[in-house]
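User: hey, got a sec? need SRP54-type proteins GTP-binding domain-containing protein folded
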Amino acid sequence: MLEQLLIFTRGGLILWTCKELGNALKGSPIDTLIRSCLLEERSGAASYSYDAPGASYTLKWTFHNELGLVFVAVYQRILHLLYVDELLAMVRREFSEIYDPKRTVYNDFDETFRQLRREAEARAEELKKSKQTDKPVNNKKKQGQVQKAGSDKGSKKSEGSLATDGGDGDKAKGHKLENGHSNGNHVEMEEPRAGVVNGKENTSSNISAFDVSKLQKRTKGGKKTDTVVNKGSKPDPKKKATKKNRVWDDAPPETKLDFTDPVDGNGSGNGNIEVVAANQGESMMDIEEIISSDSEGEVDDNVQKDSKPEAKKKGWFSSMFQSIAGKANLEKEDLEPALKALKDGLMTKNVAEEIAEKLCESVAASLEGKKLASFTRVSSTVQAAMEDALVRILTPRRSIDILRDVHAAKEQRKPYVVVFVGVNGVGKSTNLAKVAYWLLQHNVSVMMAACDTFRSGAVEQLRTHARRLQIPIFEKGYEKDPAIVAKEAIQEATRNGSDVVLVDTAGRMQDNEPLMRALSKLIYLNNPDLVLFVGEALVGNDAVDQLSKFNQKLADLSTSPTPRLIDGILLTKFDTIDDKVGAALSMVYISGAPVMFVGCGQSYTDLKKLNVKSIVKTLLK
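Assistant: Yep! Here you go:
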């Protein structure tokens, strides 16, 4: 049964809801659809699933782009209603005829909806009955085919068994088989080894059986042949090769170069390192980036090229007339060339293929049926719609002002905890130090927590950053439980009055369940204020896999009914990608989390905010 059907404008004004379907929906499926699907340019999908305590809903929708209307139907997921798509199309058609922008109440549409609903349900019932009447006939045909096939198989089986029996007897006596072809084929399919060992079948069976056995011998005996080759080429153990340092002249060999500072057992250096905060200057986080507006009005050349053949087909006069008068309504066929060019352009900028396709589907859904304005091309209309969509996706929908959150936590007399997570080698420890440097510039006291107890040298690396920045570090060495280390670090920061605790974690692949379980435990036990995913700007399609699986594992392995997922993204190595900035779009689209920091160099100052206009401009260049 249909739970709810409502009509509202793109501005959020509800025009009509079905009073007969006055069922109280559990949770807020409509709000979630708008927030998670329509606003995030996922409207090209066929449906949306919403899970609430005690209920699971499926939501389907359609648009009237020219009038700016949205039609949404909600029903229980278990029902699989077949008439919903047709009902939405009928409601869309009938309501658009009576729609008036000045009206806000449409009580007279109730009777029309009842008729439309009865028609849709009747058609669905007829379709269901026709399918049920077709099933017995098809079943009888299938049974007859199965019986016939079974009798054929039985006869072939008996012939085959007689042939094999005769073949075995003849092989024992050393005679050839009389029915060479049928028996040869049977032996080739059922017992290829016997045909190979005896070698007394006809030529066709011998060739095919020999090839199969040869392959089996290779696969089985491959290790033996390798070992034989290895034995023959095994070097003498006495002459063990060792790498020697190259000597360029007769000068005496120099000692090994080691510029690391002597560290005592407690992990503290000799204190000769100068404070870097006074030398490296202002962090790029506090410098506003200026974008040149030279190419803001440029249109993609590829889109123009794809739209030229279309103009030639229609003729010069017709295309000229359409550009002046405007096209009646945009259709899917009109949008396809421009969308294909945009999709290819996004993929060349390192946007994941799946994301680029979904974006184009969403833009097509928002433009289909819309009237083309005068003196505008389809390509420029599609480009403008895509630009708006990209700006909406990349613009954070919540505050990302960490300094404000830090001061709010300080008023409650507790430290603000940030956990850095991500795969191996993306630069978590380095960028953690950059964030610490930026916080120090704003007079925020910071403590580092060395919770990467897995990788060799991780604690020493963080210890070096702490000494250079002259901030405290909490460490317990290696092979400890990172969740317990983080908890003790937060307790220590509370006693010492530190404002922020930056927790470094071990790099882990998204498929490594033991390490993902340990990370889930760390987040559940300590309940950090911010979970930052550190990802490379170099990745393409892998960005989707990493973020989606990280979120999925954190949700699946958490013991809490409301698991914590990734709150923000720190994008690293942004200075190495030139114009391949698509990873930022892929990560934000798949996770819904904003990009809070961008690492763009090796210095402590090389940390900046994501400039949305610059990214969109680069993606559509």
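Quick note: The mean pLDDT is 76. Let me know if you need anything else on SRP54-type proteins GTP-binding domain-containing protein.
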